[in-house]
TrEMBL record:
Name of the protein in question: MSMEG_0569 family flavin-dependent oxidoreductase
Organism per entry: Ramlibacter aquaticus
Oxidoreductase keyword on record: yes
Membrane-spanning segments: none
Xref: PANTHER family: FLAVIN-BINDING MONOOXYGENASE-LIKE PROTEIN (AFU_ORTHOLOGUE AFUA_4G09220), FLAVIN-CONTAINING MONOOXYGENASE
Gene3D superfamilies: FAD/NAD(P)-binding domain
Taxonomy, superkingdom: Bacteria
Pfam families documented for this protein: Pyr_redox_3
Keywords: Oxidoreductase
């Protein structure tokens, strides 16, 4: 006979910064809950980031609940070990009711809540908050299956440092935040890099005397809710702008890398034998990134002018290198490529959540994390409410909002349980 499932008012799936932030606010409200984490709370930062990884937003934006950055360098960028220390401190600070190394296998709605099956037993809950993020399954194209077997292939989450790769040229596919930073890491180490680009945008690190993030915060961009953004929910599909906090922070300029010897190509579209095929769109990709860069700076110029702010003079980025000719083919052997790093992102996997709240691409429908399924919530997703929703800067605000919704519903659930049973039911 199966034991009776353990019941909690709320089960939080995911014990990273989002799940722990929600736990913090539920503890404040005295609401019984359990945080279920597949690995451990700092796993993603410790085990899925490369050695030279650092924040791309300044430290002052680290604003987890009652755990804001308090170090000596608020405008600096924490390195990997510092981020881990910051998060381990938050784990201790929250002291959540945590069940770690426990995989959630199935969540199903029931007549009075949810049934949750895990690798460590069965649970029931009145409400469930999904705080496991949206980056679950590494994207690797089927083309990868046809690459020569002696070529080492990694996804960006597996990359650690240049020394761990075999000698020879490295093909980096994708130039979003991870791809551009990994390409830079290899380039600075003296490795020969071939970078297959896409349409990722970029932004300046510093402009007119301040970090661009500081300007955008002052302009209230980070307070703009998703339904006020020009793209509305479409902004959730945008690729993050590439920039770096490395060595105190700087721009990432692929044109400069090209002038220094990095080989740039357009979008990788195919493989014929051992010959890679690329779209002839490198010039367009670089021009798009530069246009976004200059556009953001122009919006800062406008803000400075409108508010009469004393700041250094404006400037416009001009290319330091141009595409002489689009190259659409590259032989792997001819180029000496011995390793490939796939930096084209992740797909969500909520297959364990058997609730009809998803669209055709597997993304949940919600309004600021509250779904159409009573008692089901999401937290920590990109642009859940604002730009900072999936980051250290905004997850606390969203967690407080979800905690309030949970508290209101829990009150109604417990009030319903406390009502006397109907007379006809007692007579039966």
């Amino acid at each position: 006979m199966n034991p009776t499932p353990t019941h909690h008012s709320v089960v939080i799936v995911g014990g990273g910064q989002a799940g722990l932030s929600l736990s913090y606010y539920l503890k404040q409200r005295g609401i019984d809950h359990l945080v279920v984490e597949k690995h451990d709370p700092v796993h993603a930062w410790r085990d899925q980031r490369w050695d030279s990884f650092c924040l791309v937003t300044p430290n002052w934006q680290c604003k987890l609940p009652d755990w804001e950055y308090r170090g000596p360098d608020p405008h600096g960028f924490m390195k990997k070990d510092e981020i881990i220390d910051y998060l381990e401190g938050f784990v201790k600070h929250v002291d959540a009711p945590l069940l770690d190394h426990c995989a959630v296998r199935r969540v199903v709605p029931t007549a009075d809540g949810f049934s949750i099956s895990t690798s460590r037993g069965e649970f029931t809950a009145d409400q469930v908050a999904v705080c496991s993020g949206g980056y679950h399954v590494p994207v690797i194209p089927r083309l990868a299956e046809r690459l020569p077997r002696d070529i080492v292939q990694l996804h960006s989450e597996q990359y650690r440092n240049p020394q761990a790769l075999p000698e020879g040229a490295v093909l980096v596919v994708g130039n979003g935040q991870s791809g551009s930073q990994i390409a830079e890491d290899l380039h600075l180490a003296g490795r020969r890099v071939v970078l297959a680009t896409g349409d990722a945008p970029r932004c300046a690190r510093f402009y007119r005397g301040k970090d661009v993030v500081d300007w955008l915060a002052e302009m209230k961009y980070y307070d703009m809710p998703v339904d006020a953004h020009p793209l509305r929910e479409g902004v959730r599909d945008n690729t993050n702008h590439y920039v770096t906090g490395r060595d105190g922070g700087r721009d990432i300029d692929l044109r400069r890398f090209a002038a220094e010897g990095m080989e740039l190509y357009g979008l990788l579209v195919g493989l014929d034998g051992d010959v890679l095929r690329f779209a002839p769109d490198l010039a367009a990709n670089l021009a798009h990134a530069d246009a976004v860069y200059n556009g953001i700076n122009a919006s800062i110029d406008k803000y400075i002018a409108q508010n009469g702010i004393d700041a250094p003079p404006p400037s416009v980025y001009t290319p330091v290198w141009d595409v002489a000719q689009e190259r659409e083919r590259l032989g792997l052997r001819e180029a000496g490529i011995t390793s490939v790093i796939w930096c084209i992102g992740f797909q969500p996997d909520f297959s364990w959540l058997e609730v009809p709240v998803f669209n055709g691409r597997g993304h949940p429908g919600h309004r600021r994390g509250i779904t159409a399924q009573p008692g089901l919530y999401f937290l920590g997703l990109p642009w859940l409410h604002t730009w900072g929703s999936g980051r250290f800067s905004g997850v606390a605000r969203d967690a407080a909002h979800i905690a309030e919704a949970i508290e209101q519903r829990q009150g109604a659930v417990e009030a319903a349980r406390a009502r006397p049973a109907p007379a006809e039911a007692l007579a039966a």
